[in-house]
Design goal:
Elements lengths: L16 H25 L4 E6 L2 H16 L3 E6 H7 L8 E7 L5 H12 L3 E6 L6 H5 L2 E4 L5 H20 L3 H11 L2 H11 L1 H8 L7 E6 L4 H15 L3 E6 L16 E6 L5 H13 L3 E6 L12 H19 L16
Parallel strand pairs: 1-2, 1-3, 3-4, 4-5, 6-7, 6-8, 8-9
Helix pairs in contact: 1-6, 1-8, 2-6, 2-10, 3-4, 6-7, 8-12, 9-12, 10-12
The structure holds 2-amino-2-deoxy-6-O-phosphono-alpha-D-glucopyranose.
2-amino-2-deoxy-6-O-phosphono-alpha-D-glucopyranose binds next to helix 2.
Length: 341
Amino acid sequence: MLRLNKEEVHFLVTADMKKEVADFLEVVDAKTAPILECIKENRVERICFIGCGSSSAAGSTAKYLADKYTTLAVNAYTGWEFIDSMPVCGNKNMLAVFISQSGTTEEIVEGLRKAKKQGIMTVGVCDQREDNPLGMEADYVVDYHAEAMWECQLAALYTLIARIALERGESTEVMEKILSDMKLLPEVLGYHIEHFEEKALEMTKPLRNLKGFYTVSASSMVPLAYKEGVITGMEFLWSHGAVIQAGEFRHGPLEIVESGVPFLFLLPTDSSRAITQRALQFVERWKGTAIVLDYADFAMGLHADLAPFVMFVPLEWFCYYFSVVRDHNPDDRRYYGVVEY
Ligand SMILES: N[C@@H]1[C@@H](O)[C@H](O)[C@@H](COP(=O)(O)O)O[C@@H]1O
């Protein structure tokens, strides 16, 4: 097992997460208010979320929430997808929300400039508003000043969607509940940051010979499954990864189930729990390797659709120790930012 000084590993942003999220939640309403005004003024009916890597998974989670609870037309794009296929009819009554920690990612900057040229209203959700093209050029900016990009990006996007829904009089009860439960996030995240580390180490020790795992989930956690099971798995852990929608498990994935083939299940607590459990039970019955992280064990009473915020912490610990027990430093890169792409 690799000996690493946790404090020096950039991959792990958990240490300051609780405070960063608490600080941002204090100001997120003020930071999103001008965007809500713009939406009202321009009668915006269509929203595009655009991001790359982890930031694209945040956009897909926002699309999930908006699709489920509002009548808005919403799409989530990766950076190049947006550049190549952006809606040609969009103008002021369309909002393009660009999500990027750095605000400098090539295709985010290019997409932003292309959207602006077409007259689409643009929003940047990023760490800082200075020293990066997204923060400086977007029409509206929500800057969160944090390393905990996943949590803060989601906090910005959930707030935006919930406030739009309330303004439209759609799903008001659920939206109020989500907004009030979000205030409890720092405590819940802090608890899991403190309490899940040892468990993650124990869980991953027997997995040290694995080359990777398939991540299975449903509903609001599918983008998180992609973020952790594919992006984190490949970029940080140099392991093999793929995402399987629990409801699709029967249509292909089930045929590879056997001893030594690992599936990581992220169990939701909403109505998709049943179909996810069905896949899990199948893997257990046919002696596949099932690793389970159940939102019911972590939710601490929070709404089912806050699972992407909460489950990130146990997953982060799990991925960190999966890397460490496999003797890999998650900060190592051999290609990204090292060689020409
Ligand atoms: N290796 C990084 C990823 O870790 C990151 O998720 C992505 C988006 O970065 P940003 O959010 O700064 O646009 O860029 C690269 O692919």
